[in-house]
Specification:
The chain is mainly alpha-helical and 477 residues long. The chain is built from 14 helices and three strands. The site of protoporphyrin IX containing FE (HEM) has 20 residues, from helix 1, helix 2, helix 12 and helix 14.
């Protein structure tokens, strides 16, 4: 199927098509950002429950337990999935030199993804959920989630497969690995514990799923984006290709072994728990090589962190990634677990990684790409700067606040204080969390307003000859 906008390239006899489907990229980024707003609204509501001020607890469908699931699931299947898809639809054609092979299919998949997000909200609020953490998507909806994920991966995979045996840049290593890992992760997490493996073994698989959804779906796409955008923004190659490959293989080797660290001190056999602890600490060493690589790439140009906003988002997210992994290698110790398990420490950690790392990288993508999609500069640079500072300050306050709250709660429980006493002591921390959430939300309103004011017609993408999907051995443009 040839995209509708095709014209003919007389010299080659091939139709010319835009290299990047700008409308598709724009739709995905915008939809992802709107889902983020919805998710944050749900998060703010739930945070009020902790203060005993939940405004609509008399309406069953808006009960806090359900709204919490909406908050966490929209972050993953609304915000991250959409924005990562938009980013990949920009990056993959540029790196392979090939436009998407089935653009109409990609647009259909976009609408399916939004249908899935809407159905997810409706079903979770309706009280239909699966008893798998992060896999709460109702069983009836799981096939649709899998379908849109597979649809996305087929679209980028078709370009990647067609470049044949040509050496590929590390970004495509990450992206192609993500296509395989995600499918396996999703099927494993949503079907094995539900239908085949019960008890502690099911718990071990669920832990693997929670961890791999972040580590083998979001992380490879996120690092792939870093390797693409940072050298581009700095206008210089990555410092060491060898170090980038160590990062890739380290992720591939150590990440899948860590899942059980979500259930330390549980009935899962101790050898599996020890294995998870060791590989969690090991990955910190791998992460260090990646961070060194990026800082060496920046050498001599640190001033750009002040002047180049997308670059600042990428590097802030990367430093927070290092902090997350460092925190992970501490909190995974069995002695530390005795204190922080089940406390707000973990919630702080979750916000740091999901928002402070992947969310921040995706903001870097949005800030960099939006003017290239609309053909208009940002309406206000200052609003984008406000967005950066409000998001960063709000996140750091929320993270530190929950970290301290977690330690306090853990010691209260260890000292056998009455549970109510730990709740009373937590209320000020939860109040700070709500305020920090409001600050983050104010930041997103700045970006939303700026996006609205900077809207415009689509920019023009570079045109390339279209090569038939079936053309075996076809050379990319
Ligand atoms: C307006 C800002 C936000 C507020 C007020 C907020 C609030 C909350 C609350 C109250 C919970 C439930 C905690 C619990 O059950 O103990 C939660 C969980 C969670 N939130 Fe947020 N949130 C916000 C933004 C975000 C963002 C932007 C992300 C990711 C991009 C995110 C990711 C998560 C995750 C992953 C969890 C699950 C944590 C866990 O189970 O350990 N939140 N949030």
């Amino acid at each position: 199927m040839i995209p509708p906008a095709a014209v003919t390239a007389p010299e080659a006899g091939l139709p010319l098509v835009p290299l990047v489907d700008l409308q598709l990229v724009r739709r995905h980024l915008l939809a992802g950002f709107l889902w983020l707003l919805a998710s944050m609204f749900a998060g703010l509501l739930v945070s009020l429950q902790f203060l005993g001020r939940y405004p609509i607890d008399f309406v069953e469908i808006f009960s806090p337990g359900r709204v919490r699931m909406v908050h966490t699931n929209l972050v993953a299947f609304g915000f991250l999935l959409n924005c990562l898809a938009g980013m990949a639809y920009w990056v993959v054609p540029r790196l392979t030199g090939l436009p998407l092979q089935w653009p109409r299919f990609a647009h259909c998949n976009f609408w399916l993804m939004q249908l899935m997000g809407t159905a997810l909200v409706v079903m979770l609020l309706g009280g239909h959920a699966q008893a798998v953490e992060w896999g709460e998507t109702p069983v009836a909806l799981d096939p649709l989630v899998a379908l849109v994920a597979v649809g996305f991966f087929i679209n980028i995979g078709a370009c990647m497969l067609k470049i044949g045996r040509r050496p590929v840049y590390v970004t495509l290593w990450y992206f192609s690995a993500a296509t395989i890992w995600t499918a396996l992760t999703y099927l494993m997490g949503n079907y094995l514990p539900q239908f085949f493996v019960a008890g502690a073994a099911g718990g071990a698989i669920a832990g693997l799923y929670i961890h791999d959804l972040v580590g083998l779906f979001v992380t490879p796409l996120g690092w792939g984006a870093m390797y693409y955008f940072v050298p581009l923004l700095l206008n210089r190659p990555i410092y060491s290709h060898a170090l980038s490959l160590i990062g890739f293989w380290g992720l591939a080797f150590f990440y899948p072994l860590q899942g059980v660290h979500h259930f330390l001190w549980s009935p899962i056999p101790m050898y599996a728990q020890y294995g998870a602890v060791v590989s969690t600490i090991a990955i910190e060493i791998v992460v260090a090589t990646v961070i060194v690589n990026f800082f060496l790439t920046l050498r001599g140009q640190t001033d750009q962190l002040r002047t180049n906003l997308p670059l600042r988002w990428f590097y802030t997210g990367m430093v927070l990634y290092f902090v997350t992994c460092l925190q992970c290698s501490i909190q995974v110790l069995l002695s530390v677990q005795k204190i922080i398990h089940f406390t707000d420490w973990v919630v702080g950690h979750a916000h740091l990684v999901m928002f402070g790392v992947f969310g921040f990288w995706l903001f870097g993508v949005i800030i960099h790409l939006w003017p290239r999609l609309t053909g208009k500069p940002w309406w206000s640079h200052q609003l984008n700067v406000w967005h950066y500072w409000l998001s960063t300050a709000g996140l750091l306050v929320m993270f530190l606040d929950l970290l301290v709250a977690g330690v306090m709660q853990g010691f209260e429980w260890r000292n056998m204080a009455p549970f109510e006493s730990s709740i009373i002591a937590s209320v000020p921390f939860w109040a700070v969390r709500t305020v920090a959430g409001l600050v983050i939300a104010a930041g997103q309103i700045c970006l939303a307003w700026n996006i609205w004011k900077s809207r415009g017609a689509l920019a023009r993408a570079p045109m390339v000859p279209f090569v038939e999907p079936a053309g075996a051995g076809a050379k990319p443009a």
